[in-house]
Amino acid sequence: MIPARFTAVLFPLVMTFFMAGVVSLLLTVVNLGMPAGFLLLWLANWGLAWLFAFPAAMLAIPLARRIVGWMTAAPGA
To answer: pTM of the entire structure?
Structure first.
């Protein structure tokens, strides 16, 4: 089992894995349809998307938390 202290890295790693897969699948189908060799093309697009999505998420998560903090009221306020 992986120690809980790695949650801050593991959560975006897993989340971007799924998000990059879904988005790359959608964009591949919309732009190309289902050509011969679709699976390999999609997997290549997925890998490229994930390569960018994970570091982007690591940078965006703290900013998103701050923005959401500004948008919401503190408990009891």
So the answer is: 0.79
Reported as a single tens digit per residue, the pLDDT across 44-54 is 999 999 999 99
Distance (Å, whole) CA 75 – CA 77: 6
The CB density around residue 16, as the number of other CB atoms within 10 Å, is 21
Cα–Cα distance, 28 to 24 (Å, whole number): 6
User: 3-state secondary structure string, 29-41?
Assistant: HHHHCCCCCHHHH
Chain centroid to CA 52: 9
Q: Give Cα 76 to chain centroid, integer Å.
A: 33
Residues 29 and 46 sit within 8 Å (Cβ to Cβ): no
What are the φ/ψ torsions at residue 76 (nearest 5 degrees)? 85, 0
